Amino acid sequence: MNQSIRIIVADDHALFRSGIISLLDDAREIFVVGQVEDGQELVNKYFELKPDVLLSDISMPVISGTEAVKKIKETDPNVKALFLSMHEGEEYIYHCLKAGALGLISKNILRGELVYAIRAVFNGNKYFGANWTEERLEELIRKYDSSEADESFNSSGLSEREIEILKLIGQGLTSSEIAEKTTLSKRTIDTHRGHLMQKLNVKNLPELIKYAIQFTLKNRDL
Question: Do 48 and 75 meet the contact criterion of CB atoms below 8 Å apart?
Fold first, then answer.
């Protein structure tokens, strides 16, 4: 008989949370003990309920899912976190690993793989999809921790607003989510993205996201 697994589900969309909980109804050993809609509430509920696994979106109000996990990890270094996101690029995988998470899976995941991922993380194993072996994850970390990632970041020439948006991009937020958080329009955020790409001399959005993640990790106090 499988050991029971107590989880918290964190996402700012109630309908999506309900869908995830419904998907897990038939998994007899998995029990949803709480659900939250923002990152700060996740931190509070985690220490109140002490779940075995937290299942969280990356982009959430107040603080992001990754920032919430970092906060939890300061007190509980053994936290087992699994992220759900619409974004699955290697930049996001790296960001989740650096936050201390054990996994990242697509929001379009099927029930069987979701249950498998929760079990894997519960057992202390990493799960970023079937194609991401431990060796590939180590290569990814080396790639982003390389001299390229360690180069000095030059924020001169960026406005305070551009630095704010760059850090939000580095937290995995989309233009729409950044617009909501900053009370600017999505069109304005897209314009800022374009200016950032020009000023930072990056060629495309994946490169900007990569730069933003590295910038955020190295400039948390800005």
Answer: no
